[in-house]
Specification:
Length: about 325
């Protein structure tokens, strides 16, 4: 259970959880959920226990219990490090969330950072940076890598930039990125709260980061204001072919539609959109359908875009 396996502080409760896990592994999900539900009376403020109860209840097809357990976890931790809000959203007929909780993403990747590349690249055949790099020109100028993670994108474009900056929500991932020695600047930043940029970039790249954001309007507006006219915006998303702009998937990652992306890019002043369907990785043995997108910001800036930049300033 990774970080969800932290102790309750009560040895008897911990033992009962271990027994519940054994029941689950033997195929007795209802019994496992029932046992952990009883156990929570002993440790009513155990955040990890409530979250795990939600998972066991889902495995047992008891969605009422699952919803109650996730809601209890959210009540105990409104910052939502465990991502209970996403689990609750997936229990609804229509999802309501438009982004993964920042505290959850930060905690997830702080824990994951030291084994991120081994897990994602070697085990899941992740190749987003390489595919994006193939679509980009050789000279990229000043580059900002949004959600840079451990620096895989920087490694994919080494030698092709004059200056490279990166930002990520996870301090642990930034530690790993610094080890590569490729970035001129690395900062901890939330993509929904990026600061105004006085010196625009030539290229902004976001590889495998928008999967944690549903609504992309604000970050696209920031990119529009932060890329020089004629500059490039390159990114990847997971792909879904419905009339909805974006969907929260059972993986708790967001997938976006082509129409939504093209509309946002057009509104943000980007032209010459090169959009390609690819598979960026595998998940549970299945290729994850995705999009690689490269767009150029229009050389002339409209009054509407100037107004948008002024508002961001």
């Amino acid at each position: 259970m990774s970080k969800f396996s932290t102790s309750s502080g009560n040895l008897a409760a911990d033992r009962r959880l271990a027994y519940a896990e054994a029941l689950l592994s033997e195929g007795y999900a209802p019994a496992a959920a029932a046992l952990l539900a009883e156990t929570m009376d002993m440790v009513p403020t155990w955040l990890g226990g409530w979250y795990r109860l939600g998972e066991l209840a889902e495995a047992a097809q008891d969605m009422d219990l699952a919803g109650a357990a996730y809601q209890r976890a959210l009540d105990l931790d409104p910052s939502d490090r465990f991502g209970a809000a996403l689990r609750l959203d997936l229990l609804r007929p229509v999802t309501l969330s438009d982004r993964a909780p920042a505290a959850h993403v930060e905690a997830l990747f702080d824990e994951y950072a030291h084994r991120f590349e081994t897990s994602l690249v070697q085990k899941l055949n992740y190749r987003g940076p390489e595919l994006l790099a193939e679509l980009l020109p050789q000279s990229l100028g000043r580059v900002m890598d949004l959600g840079c993670g451990t620096g895989l994108m920087g490694a994919a474009i080494v030698g092709r930039y004059e200056w490279l900056g990166g930002c990520d929500l996870s301090s642990g991932m930034l530690v790993e990125a610094r080890k590569k020695g490729l970035y001129d600047q690395l900062e901890k930043q939330d993509l929904t709260r990026l600061p105004f940029v006085a010196d625009p970039f030539d290229t902004v790249i976001a590889a495998d980061v928008f999967i944690y954001l549903g609504a992309l309007e604000s970050v696209f507006a920031w990119v529009s204001a932060s890329v020089r006219p004629g500059g490039l915006f390159a990114f990847t998303v997971e792909y879904q072919d419905t009339e909805q702009s974006y969907l929260l998937q059972t993986s708790r990652r967001y997938a976006h539609s082509e129409a939504y992306l093209r509309s946002l890019l057009g509104n943000a002043g980007f032209v010459d959109v090169d959009l390609r369907q690819v598979s960026l990785r595998r998940d549970r043995g299945v290729d994850v359908q995705s999009l690689c997108v490269v767009a150029r910001r229009a050389a002339s800036v409209s009054q509407g875009e100037r107004d948008g930049e002024a508002a961001l300033a």
